[in-house]
Structure formats: C-alpha cells, structure tokens
Design a protein that fits this description.
20 strands, four-stranded mixed beta sheet, seven-stranded mixed beta sheet, 444 residues
Length: 444
C-alpha cells in the first residue's frame, strides 16, 4: 500500500482518524522505523505529542520512502495552502523540478511516456533509466582497452614477463606469464550502469520495469558491477567518445546516489528517495530566469562576491579576515544595473496583510535581503523575493521600501508554467521581460 502525503504532513498510527494529504495513517512497524532514523535525518522528521498521541511531522523533503515492512510513502510538494485530493498535478510539478535540478533534458511525449506519468516517483525514475538503457544497448556500448595479466597462458600474447617466466618451476615451461591490453566493455561507465541496473531489478515492483531490467541484466551479464559506486562515479568520462552516455548519466546518478543513503544499513534498511524542496525550487526558478534574461545580462547563482563584515583579530601578525559570506540565490549583473533575487519555498497568504502576520514573510528574510542590498547593490537598486504561487498569493505584492533608494518586491512564481507572475515589477526589472512568457514545455 502506498500512502500519499504532502510536505510537512503528520504521520500517525491512530486508525480512528481519516487520512488526508496532510495526515497519513501508517503501520506501527513503519512508525518505529521512522523513529529509529529520526536522529540521522535531522529536520526531515520531527516527533510531536498531541493529547497523548504521537505524531511524526515530515519536513521540507519530497520523494519516496519504503519501510523494511514494505509500506510505501510518497511525499509530494505542498503548492497550495488548502488540502488537495489530486496528487497527479503535484507529481508532475515535482518531476519537472527534478529534471531541471538534475540537468535532465525533457523527452518528447509518447504513448509509453504518458503511461508512465501515473507512476510513483521512484518507478518513473526507473522507467526513464531503463528506456535510456535500452536505447544505449541498441546503439552499442563503448569498449575500452584494459591491461590484463595472465600467469597461465598457453601462448604468448602482448608482453612476456621475463622475471616471472625464468622462475617457472620444472614442468611448466610451456605456460607463460604475459601482459596484454584487452578490448572489453569493462569500463567504469558500463560498470556503473550495471550497478544501477542491479538496484532497479532489486527494488522495482512495476512488472514492466522488472521485465525490462531483467532482459537488460542478461544482456549485460559479462559486465562486472562496482562495489563502491559513489566513489567511482567521479571517474565518469565526459569525452566525445561517450556522447551517447550523456543522457543516461543523470538517471544513473539519481539511482546510485539517492537510492543508497548511508543511514539505510543493517536492520533499519529500507528505500529512500528524498529531495530538499527548497533546492529544487531554487533550481527551477534559476532555470526560468536564465531563459528569460536579455542578452548582455549575466546570472550568477549563489554568488560569493561579498561578506557581511571584516575583522582584524588581536594577534602578533594581525590580518584582516572576512566573516559571514553573503550568498544570494541569484545575482543579475550588467552595467549600469544589477539586481539581487532570492527564492523561498514558502506559501504566502495575501489575506494576512496585518501588523502581526505580514503576509507570512519572515523577518529574518527581510534582514537578509537588506544585507544583500547594501553589499551587492551598495544600498541602491531593486531586489526580489520569489515565492511559489498559490490561490491566496497569485499577484505580486506592492513594493517594500527599505529607504528611498532600496526597494524589495515579493513576486509569485508559477511552478507549473515555470515563470514569474507578471506585474508592476517588470517596469523595474526590464531585463526579464524579453521572451519571458515563452517558456519551455516539459513533457513527462
């Protein structure tokens, strides 16, 4: 059974309540498994006690979990304040963000792709990996030369090891110690693909995925898997000879890096495929901004040009140090205009425009933008906080003024279309208006 919930949902074992997208009913075995992993997960799971009942609150992570008992939990993005009973749009949004974050090129829609669109996230990743793998095998795997040593060869090939050969015992004079280069498919890229394929074959529960993985496993039976794939994946070559491997590499990385986390060892072993939603949203917004920029403007993500302050410690060899690096999500610069933008995965509510709620904007975020404005814009210019669009925040808010020279805009971002909502801010951010409404269409 698969339980579908949203970010920050509560999980409980109490069967007397009705399950929703914000309240999942799980078995005691799954509850205990999550409890055992709570310390290693950090903020992704939090234990709560309400009226004598224990709850687990999920954090801002999305993806898929499967406990050792076989119970599955699909965690989807929370794009609306109100509870939704339609998980498919949330799943589509998550897939688009994941494609951009992992650098995956979208595939054209087909009958098979549409059929896979209703799969859970992990099965969809398996399907895409297997489809790319089938195409790669059809086109032919790349081989490479590998040095092979043979201490019992019946004939001489390659280079004869003279030192070992002269020490042969009596009766083995017809056996040779040789070294030679063998042209084999045992290159690291193929071995990593075989390792990922073995994981898919073991973890998938989809019949079509299993059949494809089983067929490919027989076709690649001569290739040896890698024992430590997370260390070896850095050796993946990007040469032109492996151009056909570039489309499958992101899928292989997702399976090898996300399906084998360190905390799933021993008796607590399960399946985990979790992604931080704030990072996915940041990548999604950055992709949109890069496509919308005017020529002549450059976009820097996580800029590291300025620090909050400098300090000279008291010592025999005093040297000025820079403390507390300021890293805005996006820094758009060109002469003579520059802009600072920051993406926040948080649902604002325009109905809460009173002195206490302030739309739900965090005071610390405003302090952060104030520091960005003075360091990156020298206290003069335009800045923007970008929040996900929802029914209660679907138009930009009126501008906020730190002073007469420094202005902040809060603008909603349509996560389904992948674009900022248009408004008065465009008069100040003219570099983002050219071709802004023509976004790339993703088909999954």
């Amino acid at each position: 059974m698969t339980i579908q919930v949203r970010e920050y949902a509560l999980l409980t074992c109490d069967n007397s309540v009705s399950g929703t997208m914000d309240l999942g009913i799980i078995s005691p075995q799954t509850f205990d498994w999550l409890m055992a992993l709570q310390e290693r997960w950090g903020n992704s799971v939090q234990l709560l006690n309400r009226e004598g009942t224990q709850f687990l609150r999920l954090g801002s992570y999305v993806g898929y979990l499967e406990s050792p008992s076989g119970e599955s939990i699909e965690i989807l993005p929370k794009t609306q304040i109100e509870i939704t009973d339609k998980p498919e749009p949330l799943r589509q949004v998550l897939r688009r963000m994941l494609q951009v974050s992992a650098g995956i090129s979208p595939r054209q829609a087909s009958a098979a792709a549409l059929q896979r669109s209703h799969q859970p996230l992990h099965e969809w990743i398996f399907s895409e990996f297997l489809c790319h793998m089938v195409e790669l095998v059809r086109r032919g795997l790349r081989f490479d030369y590998h040095l092979t040593e043979d201490n019992d060869s019946a004939f001489i090939r390659g280079q004869l090891d003279i030192n070992r050969q002269v020490r042969q015992p009596p009766g083995r004079g017809t056996r040779f110690h040789v070294r030679y280069d063998e042209f084999t498919p045992q290159r690291i890229e193929n071995r990593l693909l075989r390792t990922a394929l073995d994981s898919v074959l073991k973890l998938t529960k989809d019949s079509q995925n299993w059949r494809m993985a089983n067929t490919l496993s027989h076709q690649l039976s001569d290739i040896q898997p890698v024992t430590e794939p997370l260390l070896k994946i850095k050796s993946w070559s990007e040469s032109k000879y492996l151009f056909a491997y570039r489309t499958i590499k992101p899928w292989c990385q997702l399976i090898l890096e996300k399906m084998n986390p360190d905390f799933q060892k021993g008796l607590s072993r399960g399946i985990s495929l979790l992604f931080p939603m704030d990072k996915l949203f940041e990548k999604w917004v950055g992709h949109s901004l890069a496509n919308a920029l005017h020529p002549g403007f450059s976009l820097a993500m996580q800029s590291k040009e300025h620090y909050l302050l400098t300090h000279t410690p008291v010592s025999n060899n005093p040297a000025t140090e820079s403390w507390f690096m300021l890293r805005p999500d996006f820094f758009i610069k060109a002469k003579p205009t520059s802009f600072v933008l920051d993406a926040k995965w948080k649902l604002l509510d325009a109905r809460q425009a009173n002195s206490s709620d302030k739309y739900g904007i965090s005071q610390s975020d405003l302090y952060q933008m104030y520091a960005y404005g003075h360091k990156y814009l020298t206290g003069k210019g335009q800045m923007m906080l970008i929040y996900p669009c929802n029914p209660f925040f679907d138009v930009p808010l009126p501008p906020f003024h730190f002073d007469k020279n420094l202005t902040l805009w809060c603008v909603p971002f349509d996560v389904e279309l992948g674009q900022l909502v248009r408004g008065e801010w465009e008069l100040k951010f003219a570099c983002l208006t050219n071709g802004f409404m023509s976004t790339e269409v993703y088909t999954v």
